[in-house]
């Protein structure tokens, strides 16, 4: 809340002021027009008439026609004087009116420019820390050709403005202090498309009794000490709880991933059936040493990256913390975690990576258009000749041939391996399918 005091809510004030002065102007317009109406409508004339009959009513002497004419002439003169004064007044009112109208239009324009500056999809004008996070900010050295502008906007997910209430709650924090313990809430905002998040000026809570990680390469297969992280956001409060999760009932994301001595130990080491490719078999499709850098999308605890690391391939693993400290765990293994969702445009440049892998993440839960975005993005970041290992893509029945096969073909990958197989764990009648494929970005 301290941040509120740091940055006075000037724009809100300005806006109220503008509204108030606009109201005044409207009242002024209405009243001047009433005056005109008064003068030039029946009301005005009858007032004049009343005046005529009152103040200037001549005393009529029928016997003195000359005097009568004089009186009439005098009255006519008076009347014409009033008339010309009235016309003058009318003219001035007209000028005043048009001036006011111009003024009002100008003010309206200024106000709508102000509105446009923050409206921009926001329900209310962003204030305080959120306003800073939204920008724009003037560049201290002025225009720069790199930006083609003299101001810049901090990067912020466009969907943020759809969740302004939640975002305002998220942005209520002590600038310079400790970030509120709201990881789950924050990650939900991200997953709804408010990514990247706008909070930039607090210190994350750190674990009490933090101990340095185990040295590499032992770190790759070591469960870190419980004191290495903050457990607030998770159901489990220690690693043995997470390791034992595979024996628990209930569905958890990547349920057996933390058990490094269990199933994780053998993953990708051998070809198993049609759907489980072996890492070495995949690497053998390229000249030795030419697969050097890569990305694992939704890589759980990064065992794929660990196996790649053992083969001298550097892999970044994107992972969300779904009721588990996935990112922290990956980091303590000595691997690079990246906290971005599958909706995020991949933060790599075109034609750069040698390999991209993804297992159990890309599947039919993703809206078709967004899946296509993700696939095109993978194609984009892969270098020519780069590999996309699509591991256990999941879908149901006709979706495979009706939707996904055409989609994969559309992206432009070349098929090196392509195996579709039934997923049988929930029964054959469910008609669930897996696809494992090794795709190549063509050289030309
Ligand atoms: C009427 O009054 C005007 C101004 O007082 C005068 O110039 C004019 O001669 C008068 N006309 C008659 C017919 O008296
Ligand atoms: C870990 O947490 C579980 C509950 O989540 C608890 O039962 C267990 O005793 C804890 N183990 C250690 C070693 O702290
Ligand atoms: C990885 O690189 C190291 C150092 O260059 C080398 O000694 C080792 O043999 C390499 N490992 C593999 C699997 O290529
Ligand atoms: C998709 O089409 C191929 C060939 O046209 C066919 O062999 C396969 O069974 C179909 N797959 C599904 C899941 O329907």
TrEMBL record:
> This protein's superkingdom?
Eukaryota
Query: SUPFAM superfamilies from the entry?
Result: S-adenosyl-L-methionine-dependent methyltransferases (SSF53335)
Renumbered to this chain, the signal peptide range is none
Give the Pfam families listed for this entry: Methyltransf_11
- Give the keywords, sorted: Membrane, Transmembrane, Transmembrane helix
Regions that span the bilayer: 21-40
What protein does this entry describe? Uncharacterized protein LOC109711989
What is this protein's gene name?
LOC109711989
């Amino acid at each position: 809340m301290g941040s509120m005091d740091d940055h006075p809510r000037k724009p809100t004030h300005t806006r109220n002021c503008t509204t108030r002065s606009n109201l005044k102007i409207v009242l002024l317009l209405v009243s001047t027009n009433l005056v005109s109406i008064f003068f030039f409508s029946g009301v005005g004339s009858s007032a004049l008439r009343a005046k005529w009959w009152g103040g200037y009513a001549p005393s009529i002497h029928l016997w003195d026609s000359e005097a009568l004419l004089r009186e009439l002439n005098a009255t006519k003169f008076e009347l014409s004087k009033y008339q010309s004064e009235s016309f003058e007044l009318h003219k001035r009112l007209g000028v005043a009116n048009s001036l006011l109208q111009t003024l009002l239009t100008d003010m309206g324009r200024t106000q709508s420019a102000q509105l446009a500056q923050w409206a921009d999809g926001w329900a209310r004008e962003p204030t305080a820390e959120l306003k800073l996070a939204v920008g724009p900010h003037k560049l201290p050295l002025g225009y720069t050709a790199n930006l083609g502008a003299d101001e810049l906007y901090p990067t912020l997910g466009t969907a943020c403005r759809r969740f302004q209430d939640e975002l305002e709650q998220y942005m209520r924090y002590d600038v310079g202090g400790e970030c509120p313990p709201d990881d789950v809430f924050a990650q939900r905002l991200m997953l709804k498309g408010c990514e990247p998040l706008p909070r930039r000026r607090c210190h994350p809570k750190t674990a009490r009794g933090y101990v340095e990680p185990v040295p590499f390469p032992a770190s790759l297969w070591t469960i870190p000490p419980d004191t290495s992280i903050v457990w607030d956001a998770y159901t489990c409060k220690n690693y043995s709880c997470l390791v034992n999760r595979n024996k628990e009932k209930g569905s958890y994301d990547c349920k057996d991933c933390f058990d490094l001595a269990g199933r994780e130990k053998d993953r990708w080491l051998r070809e198993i059936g049609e759907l489980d490719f072996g890492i070495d078999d995949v690497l053998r499709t390229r000249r030795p040493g030419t697969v050097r850098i890569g990305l694992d999308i939704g890589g759980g605890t990064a065992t794929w990256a660990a196996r790649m690391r053992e083969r001298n391939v550097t892999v970044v693993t994107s992972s969300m913390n779904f009721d588990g400290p996935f990112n922290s765990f990956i980091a303590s293994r000595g691997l690079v975690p990246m906290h971005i969702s599958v909706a995020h445009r991949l933060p790599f440049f075109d034609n750069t990576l040698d390999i991209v892998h993804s297992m159990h993440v890309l599947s039919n839960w993703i809206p078709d258009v967004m899946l296509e975005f993700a696939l095109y993005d993978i194609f984009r970041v892969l270098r020519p000749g780069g590999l996309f290992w699509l591991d256990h893509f999941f879908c149901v029945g006709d979706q495979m041939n009706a939707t996904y096969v055409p989609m994969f073909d559309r992206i432009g990958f070349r098929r090196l391996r392509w195996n579709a197989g039934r997923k049988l764990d929930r029964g054959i009648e469910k008609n669930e399918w897996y696809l494992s494929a090794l795709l190549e970005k063509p050289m030309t």
